[in-house]
């Protein structure tokens, strides 16, 4: 691909991701409530486990990395950061969410997965995993594409799981 074509593709993708990240819907004078008994925080341990298994296997097998422990540590570290960061951002305003406990998190009116979460995941996990594992493979481009693809896949899977199991609405 020519340099100009790469710049165009990167610009279009960046613009698209920025548009997703900055789109906000306002529900003035509305209260959020969960219709389903299951909240996103309830399925978080299962989604984390599934995400780790899928990402570790893909990142180990596709770019052919031999050091299992290094892959596990890199992927786990990146996922810890990317799973905690959305909560820190959302809960950084002490006004509506004054305490850090499961009861508060179960009342929060946001799902774990959305467009911003995907962008945050990619911006966090790609550099962490890539720089930790780049010297362990001859297939650096494959490594980057694998990290990108498997994170998009797992984010979509978690989003689908969350939307099926955790139903809520504004009223």
The number of helical elements comes to 6
Q: Can you give the mean pLDDT?
A: 78
Query: What overall form do the CA principal axes indicate?
Result: globular
The fraction of residues in strands falls at: under 5%
Topology pattern, helix = H, strand = E: HEHHHHHE
Question: Given the helix and strand composition, which structural class is it?
Answer: mainly alpha
State the total count of DSSP E strands: 2
Low-confidence stretches: none
Strand order of the largest sheet: 1-2
Taking the alpha carbons of the first and last residues, their distance comes to 50 Å
Largest sheet: 2 strands, antiparallel
Helix content, binned percent: 55-70%
Supply Rg.
18 Å
What attributes characterize this protein structure?
171 residues; mainly alpha; two-stranded antiparallel sheet; 6 helices; 68% helix; globular
